[in-house]
Fold this sequence. Notes:
mainly beta
Amino acid sequence: EAFPSQGASETHRAVVERGSALRTQLTLRTDGKGAVSLEIGRMGTGSARAWLLRLHLLPGQRAASVRVDGEEVGGPSGTSLVHLMPRDADDDGHFPLSGAGAAPPTSAGPVAE
């Protein structure tokens, strides 16, 4: 779950492997002109890991393109881009941080997943 800044920004976080002190460093960058990048460091053991990125966009925004390791999404990497639109006003089933495929709440912007 990532909430990109509208302005130029750089945020650093670490994901700690459950039951250990191993960390994976993350850096989220925005350029203030609409570009967002997420750099995922190597896990302490060097093991591969799968990631699902959910970018919470502002109302009216959409992701124009996505690259993973320099490849356009939808290419040989097998990844894809989906825009999940906010729930209808009469749908009260929203629960935050519900994971993959979960629609954002009413009046929010779309989630690019």
